Amino acid sequence: MKPYKFILIPSLVFCFKFSAFAQQVSCSELYEYVLDNYDHKKNASILQSSMLVKVSYYEIDDSGVVVAHIKQNDWDLTGKPYIFCGISRLRWNSFTNAGIFGSWGEAFHDYIMDYTCDCY
Question: Euclidean distance between the first and final Cα of the chain, in Å?
Answer without folding.
Answer: 38
